[in-house]
Amino acid sequence: MLTLGIETSCDDTAAAVLRNSDILLSSVVSSQDQIHTRFGGVVPELASRQHLESIVPIVTEALDRADVTLQDIDLIAVTQGPGLIGSLLVGFSYAKALSYVTRIPFIGVDHMAGHLLAVFLEEDKPDFPYIALIVSGGTSSIYLARSHISFSLLGRTRDDAAGEAFDKVAKLLGLPYPGGPRVSAEAIAGNRSAIKFPRAWLGRSLSFPGASDTRPSLAVEEESLDFSFSGLKTAVLNHCNQAKQMDIPLQLADICASFQEAVVDVLVEKTLLAARSHNVQTVVLGGGVSANLRLREAMSSRCQQEGKAFFVPRPSFCTDNGAMIALAGFYYSRDSTPASYEQDVYSRSQL
Ligand code: KG4
């Protein structure tokens, strides 16, 4: 079975061709970073206009590289949500139209299911159940995955997503968009303990053995698997303002390393807490922020300490791509009837 996967949820136009669940014939991604970088973030209107220009060439390239034609395709899988509505509409309407004229069935896929399953594009595949931390520009969520189509949301961000925090901190430090890779590159030369930025644990009664900050002695509420990064972002801003007022030069590398460590600490410890409290032995990482080397390293070493198996896809499967959408479409199509042309896109995940 050949699945054509199409992804346009944010600022990447992507398409891929997947044979069954395991043979990736092509995966093409067109990034819009250059368009959005001068604005310091994604401009939704520009993103959807660029998808309109890119969608046909990108799908054509994915088919060409796979050495197949549309007639060979059995299923069109397309991101239905969550994401920017204008961006989603381009890919979803295109997929519907393609399906209508070719009579190839199409299926709408939740973008989060794509990230949750991206690890199955690798040779080394996890067993179910697993705890997945999905961190990107639009989300920071922890899921319990029971099968290829059964996921329970255990925790999510109450404000900024981790990638959004990286991008906003980069902007206030004068680094270009997308900020995550720039902040992590600067952090390499910095000292992670130089500045004591806050960790928002959001109340908990369990201890976090690997975390490096000082924890409150009393739990103020039940331990939470939710995240909050807006206070951390403000703390970085305050630190920079204070340094300017006191005429102290900003130590960019130390700020980046200390900020990154504060994000990584919370992401890793809450993921491990979820695994412990659900008695799950496997941890999976996904989403654009999982390209962050410090996060990979810290998660891997804490999983090792706690005897958990750890899986993370290669960086090109962590960021938005069509291959993970094709894969999720493949699994969901085995369990549901093809989508109807009445269906529409949605901005919030339905998982
Ligand atoms: O999943 P993704 O490709 O797209 C969406 O969120 O739609 O994730 C992009 C996000 C951006 O916020 C980017 O700054 C962040 O992932 N990111 C990183 C790194 N590489 C990408 N954040 C931290 N460290 C990185 N190395």
What does this structure look like?
- It is globular, with a radius of gyration of 21 Å.
- The protein contains eleven helices and ten strands.
- Helix 4 (111-117) crosses helix 11, helix 5 (162-172) packs across helix 6 (179-187) and helix 6 crosses helix 8.
- With 351 residues, the chain is of the alpha/beta class.
- A hairpin with a 4-residue loop joins strand 6 and strand 7.
- It binds 5'-O-[(R)-(carboxyoxy)(hydroxy)phosphoryl]adenosine.
- The site of 5'-O-[(R)-(carboxyoxy)(hydroxy)phosphoryl]adenosine has 19 residues, from helix 5 and helix 6.
- 5'-O-[(R)-(carboxyoxy)(hydroxy)phosphoryl]adenosine (KG4) binds next to helix 5 and helix 6.
Keywords:
single chain, 351 residues, alpha/beta, Nucleotidyltransferase, domain 5, 2 domains, five-stranded mixed beta sheet, 11 helices, binds 5'-O-[(R)-(carboxyoxy)(hydroxy)phosphoryl]adenosine
Question: How is the topology of this model organized?
Answer:
Elements (H helix, E strand, L loop, with lengths): L1 E6 L4 E8 L3 E9 L1 H4 L7 H23 L8 E7 L3 H18 L3 E5 H7 L12 E6 L4 E8 L2 E7 L5 H11 L6 H9 L42 H16 L6 H26 L4 E5 L6 H13 L3 E3 L3 H4 L3 H12 L18
Parallel strand pairs: 1-4, 4-5, 6-9, 9-10
Antiparallel strand pairs: 1-2, 2-3, 6-7, 7-8
Helix pairs in contact: 2-3, 4-11, 5-6, 5-7, 6-8, 8-9
The structure holds 5'-O-[(R)-(carboxyoxy)(hydroxy)phosphoryl]adenosine.
